[in-house]
């Protein structure tokens, strides 16, 4: 049984199950997720797009539905008695689900560690009490669990394998109707409705400023499958800047870019793996932001900076995430070749630090290893 609560977790779960089926064709999967998991062959019993929210205020608004989803998943665990529960990210929800699974004697594999290196390191012990194994995707995370004698395995980051354009850069320029002689700027506003609402207007305003300052600049946006056409177009049509929205080809879009403005999250690592210079930006509701300021101990929120252990790309958070600040940073990347080259080289270092890939395959082998050790029904 799989439990994934948002787009990146669902993608991880889908790729994991595909690899598991290669190793053990007769295996069956059920759980909570979305269309990608269903396409991979998992029998999705609850559509997690209804609860894919981030932030204190947003969680409170959706609390009733989140609670309903948890009750449904707990009932499913009790009724179906799967051999293994694989919780993918979506930390607080999945911690509660793992606690219930442990109570009724079902093995739990947790995939993607909570960011204990950023805040609340005491969670390591809590998770250790309700899981059979923590699978981490960054090499530096294992030390936190080993220090508390919690079973842990570094499996590698699944994005390393997944971030592969389908076409060459020159082919994509032709396919997307881009001028290879003019700069291309990518807009990555996120995959959740709340992120689009908060970040896309800021990015579009920045694009308008850039269009005035840099002749011939082109803008391209990889449309997340979770964002409806009418929602996205309502923003794009109101903008003075001309933005090409491209569906279902995120890595082909990213590789065409000379610079990218992106919300914080998995997308920042995907851009880093393509070594495209970027600026990371994010806005939260004021209560969530101030709570985060109190709790979060890491100086960075962007994954490339966290992996590098230093600030290699600029982060613009909350009030700093203004159209002017975004436009200035993107303008610097486009006009200062030395600055852009330094950022590219640092991102290459992040890519090398993340290793050779095989994350989903390693995770599949680990899941089957735990399944093999489960008591036979």
Uncertain residue segments: none
Helix content: 40-55%
- Name the beta content range: 15-25%
Count of distinct strands? 13
Structural class: alpha/beta
Major beta sheet, strand line-up: 3-2-1-4-5-6-7
Oligomer: single chain
Gap from first CA to last CA: 16 Å
Major β-sheet, in short?
A: 7 strands, parallel
**If helices are DSSP runs of H or I spanning 4 or more residues, what is the number of helices?**
18
Q: Rg, please?
A: 21 Å
Globular, elongated, flat, extended or rod-shaped: what is the shape?
Answer: globular
What does this structure look like?
- With 377 residues, the chain is α/β, with parallel strands linked by helices.
- Helices cover 50% and strands 16% of the residues.
- It has 18 helices and 13 strands.
- The strands form two sheets. Strands 3-2-1-4-5-6-7 form a seven-stranded parallel beta sheet, with helices on both faces. A six-stranded parallel beta sheet has the order 10-9-8-11-12-13, sandwiched between helices.
- β6, α7 (142-146) and β7 (152-154) form a beta-alpha-beta unit.
- α1 crosses α18, α4 runs parallel beside α5 (91-103) and α10 crosses α16.
- The longest helix is centred in the middle third of the chain and has 21 residues, at 193-213.
- The protein is globular.
- The two termini are 16 Å apart.
- The model has no long low-confidence stretch (mean pLDDT 90).
């Amino acid at each position: 049984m799989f439990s994934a609560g948002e787009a990146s977790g669902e993608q991880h779960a889908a790729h994991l199950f595909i690899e598991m089926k290669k190793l053990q064709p007769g295996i069956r999967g059920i759980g909570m997720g979305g269309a990608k998991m269903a396409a991979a062959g998992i029998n999705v019993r609850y559509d997690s797009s209804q609860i894919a929210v981030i932030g204190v205020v947003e969680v409170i608004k959706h609390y009733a539905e989140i609670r309903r989803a948890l009750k449904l998943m707990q009932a499913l665990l009790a009724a179906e008695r799967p051999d293994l529960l694989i919780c993918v990210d979506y930390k607080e929800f999945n911690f509660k689900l793992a606690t219930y699974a442990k109570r009724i004697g079902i093995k739990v594999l947790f995939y993607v560690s909570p960011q204990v290196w950023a805040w609340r390191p005491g969670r390591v012990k809590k998770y250790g009490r309700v899981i059979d194994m923590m699978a981490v995707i960054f090499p530096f995370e294992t030390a936190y669990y080993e220090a508390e004698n919690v079973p842990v395995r570094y499996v590698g980051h699944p994005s390393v394998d997944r971030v592969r354009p389908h076409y060459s850069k020159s082919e994509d320029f032709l396919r997307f109707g881009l001028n290879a002689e003019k700069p291309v700027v990518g807009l990555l506003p996120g995959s959740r409705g709340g992120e689009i609402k908060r970040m896309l207007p800021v990015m579009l305003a920045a694009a308008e400023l850039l269009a005035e300052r840099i002749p011939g600049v082109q803008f391209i946006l990889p449309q997340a499958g979770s964002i409806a056409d009418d929602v996205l177009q309502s923003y794009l049509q109101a903008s003075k800047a001309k933005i090409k929205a491209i569906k279902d080809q995120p890595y082909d879009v990213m590789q065409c870019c000379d610079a990218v403005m992106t919300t914080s999250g998995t997308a920042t690592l995907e851009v880093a793996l393509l070594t495209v210079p970027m600026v990371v930006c994010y806005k939260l509701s004021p209560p969530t932001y101030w709570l985060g300021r109190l709790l979060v101990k890491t100086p960075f929120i962007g994954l490339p900076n966290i992996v590098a252990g230093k600030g290699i790309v600029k982060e613009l958070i909350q009030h700093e995430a203004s159209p002017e600040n975004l436009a200035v940073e993107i303008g610097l990347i486009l006009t200062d070749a030395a600055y852009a080259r330094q950022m590219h080289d640092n991102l290459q270092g992040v890519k090398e630090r993340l290793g050779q890939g095989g994350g989903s395959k390693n995770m599949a082998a680990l899941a089957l290893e735990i399944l093999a050790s489960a008591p036979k029904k």
